[in-house]
């Protein structure tokens, strides 16, 4: 993204760093706990989400151009490989994106930032599918 000064700004910088990402992750999992369409997706996660939230926060921070703590701790993201044990089809992808969109709307005040994040996450979410439509 390009800031007011015309310089390139990472999404991480654009939205304000780690604190907004932490709020985004909390809101995302709150959505997963409450949105009926996400019931099956939520069931794929442990009941205690503390570690899951921590890891997603690290991942999103790095993915948005922030610190590389995720890779330093866990190695290359290999997201698809890490999710192969879960059945992810169109319904799961759509539920994940719905929860993320609602969480972004709730926590990221800047519309351009929300749009940029969701626009970049949508193809990633689609890439995670490992079940054919049918």
Automatic annotation (TrEMBL):
The keyword Metal-binding applies. Pfam families: Bac_globin. InterPro entries: GlbO/GLB3-like, Globin-like_sf, Globin/Proto, Hemoglobin_trunc. One of its GO terms (molecular function) is oxygen binding. Keywords: Heme, Iron, Metal-binding, Transport. CDD domains: TrHb2_PhHbO-like_O. The keyword Metal-binding applies. Belongs to the truncated hemoglobin family. Group II subfamily. This is Hemoglobin.
